[in-house]
Amino acid sequence: MWHVLLLNGPNLNLLGTREPDIYGRETLDHIVQRTCDYARSQGIELRHVQSNHEGALIDALHEARAWADGVIINAGAYTHTSIALRDAISAIQLPTIEVHLSNIYAREPFRHISLIAPVCVGCISGFGAESYLLAIHAMSLILAKQAGGDPAE
User: Fold this and answer.
1) CB-based burial of residue 89 (10 Å sphere; 0-12 exposed, 13-18 middle, 19+ buried)?
2) Which of 23, 48, 78, 132 is catalytic?
3) With CB atoms counted within 10 Å of each terminal CB, which end of the chain scores lower, N or C?
4) Among the options 30, 38, 53, 100, which is catalytic?
5) Is 100 a catalytic residue?
């Protein structure tokens, strides 16, 4: 079984009530539960961390070096502003997938720039809560390829 950090950044704790026409009505707790269930079916155990504080997100990334095989991150607004998160992702040298609920490229121009994308293996954006499930699928393929085996082992 693989171990993956699921990291959610600022304001994602407000999902379900925050701008539901953009982010949907599903709560973060429900999204995380569905994602954990799907991950288990793919041979992945998730540990979830959500914080509104940049330093806590960086600490979680640093700690993941000791136990994780990969990272799935929705950095929220820090996607567009945080060189520190970018540097932490680069430093831990774990395959990392960037996730967004909304299509950041169909929104305000400042959201079109991701500072973390260059150090991630890919980005999944615009599929609502399903973006997380797509990221799990992609991570299972990445980890299986690295291991040279079956993702369910």
Assistant:
1) buried
2) 23
3) C
4) 100
5) yes
Residue 105 appears among annotated catalytic residues: no
Contact predicate 78/104, CB 8 Å:
no
20: domain CATH number? 3.40.50.9100
How far apart CA 26 and CA 44 sit, in angstroms, is 23
* Beta carbons of 24 and 17 less than 8 angstroms apart: no
Structural domain count of the chain: 1
pTM of the model: 0.93
Q: Does 104 reside within a domain? A: yes
Pairing of strands 2-8, 44-50: parallel
Mind listing the pLDDT tens digit for each residue in 84-114? 999 999 999 999 999 999 988 888 887 889 9
In a domain, residue 153? The reply is no
Determine, yes or no, domain membership for 54: yes
Q: What is the C-alpha to C-alpha distance for residues 114 and 34, in angstroms, rounded to an integer?
A: 26
In this structure, is residue 125 part of a structural domain? yes
Residues 6 or more apart whose CB falls under 8 angstroms from that of 31 comprise: 15, 129, 132
Domain encompassing residue 128: 2-147
Q: Which residue has the higher pLDDT, 137 or 19?
A: 137
8 A C-beta contact, residue 102 and residue 127: no
